[in-house]
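Obj: model holo form, ligand = pyridoxal-5'-phosphate.
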Amino acid sequence: MAAFTSARPGEPTPAISDAHKGPTGVLEIPQRFLMGPGPANADPRILAAQSLPLLGHMHPPFLKIMDEVQQGLRYLFQSDTKYTLCASGTGHAGMEMAIANLLEPGEKIVVGNNGIWGTRVCDMADRFGAEVVNLQTAAGTSFSLAELTAALEQHKPAVLFLCQGESSTGVHQSLAGVGEACAKNGTLLLVDTVCSLGGVPMYADAWGVDAIYSGSQKCLSAPPGAAPLMLNDKALQKIKSRKTKVRSYYLDLNLVGDYWGWFGSRSYHHTGMVSMWYAMREALAIVSEEGLEAGWVRHEQAHKALWAGLSEMGLHPFVADPKDRLVTVNTIKVPEGVDWAAVCKNAMDKFSVEIAGGLGPTAGQIWRVGLMGYNAKPANVELVLAAFKDGLTQQGFLKA
Ligand SMILES: Cc1ncc(COP(=O)(O)O)c(C=O)c1O
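Output (holo structure tokens):
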């Protein structure tokens, strides 16, 4: 090979170092069953869509795919709003986008906090200069409408945050009536649906939810990297009438929304995540083809089948009230004397099944089993049950 002589004509060139030479050879990945709180296994049809040839991020055929994504999201959110898009990033990008745009410094947010996502929203809102009211309830429980209404009347916040599916505790927060209570108090209702969208009912317009963010890698069966987001007219008006600039350029919905065609024309803001938006287009096509209701029923049936098997083994749910149990992320109490980590390790080593431990307030107390999207099916439930049976037998909890 001819020697490389100079970085630019006439400039001296240092010797190339191989000290940190990168990997070589074709990447290989073992097959795993991702039955923790996410990511879930991606649908092969979605992975295939991601390997299609790239289009330019402003090419008309690509803009058409973005339009299809926006339309699919309207169905998923059950909203007629014009304002849907995907943030370029994981669920946290959606979370940060919502907080950065909906709140101005000094404005109040009441955070319904019953797990780590509420805690993170408190942190984020604080970083953006908001006044945070941290409304807490015990891990494993949800907020009643009466509790939320009292907090709204007392604080009259600009925003109320709730997490529909709290994946650290396995709680499903009811949203019925909350939108109405928010509207009466001049508050916008912001909901995290990262672990729930597509797996449990969402009726954004009927429930008066003003803003929602989510994630691609859970009930939508896509890889991580897209954060679906919606605003209704009221939430968009709030952003349009801000007195201060949104403090993040990358996440400013005035700019990102423009790229997604919210305001008529479209202009470049950042390079759209071309392959990731193909994945989202395909994920949303799968949701539309199955039908929302059929998808919700499938998730519920998987949850019931899981618990039928776990109960037979003598295991108990962490969430006491059956109404509060999230079907997509199931939380299971670790019995006295059982080494939870050994059960997870055995599941991975012997069954290639991921079962997760607790997180934040539930660390060391529970296992978490995700039944989301492509994974919410009988064969996966059986595999998880087999892994538990084997692990619990090794631990002496079940008789051999
Ligand atoms: C309920 C909930 N919100 C937000 C997130 C953050 O999403 P991500 O990890 O995709 O950034 C997660 C991730 O597990 C989640 O479960």
